[in-house]
Specification:
Radius of gyration: 23 Å
Helix content: over 70%
Strand content: under 5%
């Protein structure tokens, strides 16, 4: 690009975006990501395009081509998200997720409540891939139980959030776990494996801290009537069995064997549908005498129709227990549309900013202070946190930071797995620690604890970026890779 854009002008679309996002969060609250934020991204993209056209003389077609190419880079993640939506719904209907919740709740012990609460939320969030659903459902129940046991609300919330964000960061069903590798251009399961280097130490220390706190805390005994109601309702509405753990275990096994994410998750989705038909179809299980072949065909047809409907629209439970109904009324491809549109608009904004050279100019300003590879990775974590604070949205923290730093990693011959990991180490886990971030606002409202009160007890969320920055500074777990072609290529996603 012959004309180099100024830093101040490059920041103009970002400032507009931050202002619009702040207004949207203030006006729409938790609903900000269901349309308003997408609109803000579109408006900011238009401003960036106008600046590029007027100040740099770029043609509309040139900007459009690069913006569309940016969106194409996220198409694998979009397909995965749709499969994930169907998988969550079918796993609930099949009894897989209910069985995980059932056996998780059975492990509750008053003497180690904080540790168990963190583990339960970890299990649920890993199974459904959503920290929000985990906090807003099982988290609410655990707040009540913890209070009865004599624990203060902020520390209970810290245990819940720490566990919930393990799944948000690590589950292949999580949107952020799919978004970070999509923005970076790496394979999903390679990304998950690489994150273990920072996640295992942070999570281990978190569990140890909650265990030690439990040892020195004074607790009261209580009848866990609410948990008993949930367990009884799960048994009434689903066929519960440890056998169902085989399905998520198989998906994990396929991930270890480096199976591409789309076929691996598709296997899990199909198995969910099959198990749902075999074990959760009460009409089919209780019918022993068919008057004709046509009646059997009709029953099978209705079962198939129900399964397809659940896969697209999601599963709805009506057990009479609000907490359980909210937890297990989830999934479906339709529920992923707002996330899909947010990804498309975010990638559009990143593409226009990159096409006009604005991202590169902003990155230059930040990278002017970076001297080493470790410093680059530490800067990625810090920048992700800054965007969580000023952009008030974890998706934007991941997308904008990823687009800003991607080419710099390639120029320094650093594997883009370093980028995807540091994006999650900084962007995913710290979003809930910002009061005006959508994640922080949601957690505070559903758990009934102000963000700044639970913040000191979210040990996993605090330790992960600290460990990541420390490892970067020590030059530990820095993966080197030589890039011959410095241009973005969607093919890179499939090379690992």
């Amino acid at each position: 690009m012959e004309n180099k854009i100024s830093l101040k002008l490059s920041l103009a679309p970002c400032i507009l975006l931050i202002v619009l996002l702040a207004v949207n969060v203030w006006t729409f609250g938790d609903e900000a990501t269901s349309g308003p934020c997408q609109t803000a991204l579109l408006i900011s993209s238009i401003l960036a395009g106008i600046i590029g056209h007027k100040k740099l003389g770029l043609s509309y077609r040139e900007i459009e081509r690069k913006a569309i190419h940016s969106i194409v880079l996220a198409m694998e993640a979009i397909i995965i998200l749709l499969i994930v939506g169907a998988t969550i719904a079918l796993w609930i209907q099949a009894g897989i997720v209910p069985s995980i919740i059932y056996y998780g709740l059975k492990t509750l012990s008053p003497s180690s409540f904080l540790l168990i609460a963190c583990l339960i939320c970890s299990m649920v969030s890993l199974a459904i891939g959503s920290s929000w659903s985990t906090m807003g459902t099982i988290g609410v129940a655990l707040i009540g139980i913890g209070k009865a046991l004599g624990y203060k609300e902020p520390i209970i919330a810290g245990a819940i959030i720490s566990g919930a964000y393990l799944g948000d960061k690590m589950s292949p069903l999580s949107d952020t776990t799919n978004l970070a590798p999509a923005v970076s251009g790496v394979n999903l399961f390679s990304h998950v494996r690489n994150m273990l280097n920072t996640t295992i130490p942070a999570y281990t220390l978190t569990l140890l801290i909650f265990f030690l706190i439990g040892l020195v805390s004074t607790r009261n005994t209580v009848e866990l009537t609410e948990i008993s109601k949930i367990l009884n309702s799960l048994e009434k509405n689903f066929y519960i069995h440890w056998f169902f753990f085989i399905v998520p275990a198989l998906v994990i096994y396929l991930a270890i064997r480096k199976t591409p994410p789309i076929p691996a998750l598709t296997v899990g989705c199909l198995l969910g549908g099959i198990l749902s038909f075999l074990f959760q179809n009460s009409d089919l299980l209780t019918t022993t005498d068919f008057q004709s072949i046509s009646s059997l065909v009709n029953l099978v047809t209705k079962s198939y129709e129900k399964t397809i409907h659940v896969a697209y629209y999601g599963y709805q439970l009506q057990s009479g227990i609000p907490v359980l109904d909210e937890l297990l009324s989830a999934g479906g491809m339709e529920k992923m549309f707002s996330t899909v549109t947010l990804i498309i608009m975010a990638m559009l904004f990143g593409g226009v900013m990159e096409a006009t050279g604005m991202l590169g100019r902003i990155a230059e300003g930040i990278l002017s202070l970076v001297r080493t590879s470790g410093g680059l990775m530490a800067s990625t974590v810090i920048t992700s946190i800054i965007f969580n604070i000023f952009a008030a949205e974890q998706y934007l923290s991941i997308v904008i930071t990823g687009r800003m730093f991607r080419n710099t990693y390639k120029h320094k011959n650093l594997d883009l797995l370093n980028l995807s990991r540091t994006l999650e180490d900084g962007g995913t886990v710290t979003s809930v620690l910002v009061p005006w971030n959508t994640c922080g606002a949601f957690a505070s409202s559903v758990l009934g604890v102000p963000t700044l009160q639970y913040l000191p007890y979210c040990f996993f969320n605090l330790l992960t970026p600290i460990i990541s920055i420390a490892m970067a500074k020590l030059n530990y777990n820095v993966i080197v890779k030589s890039y011959q072609d410095q241009e973005d290529s969607i093919d890179e996603t499939y090379k690992r």
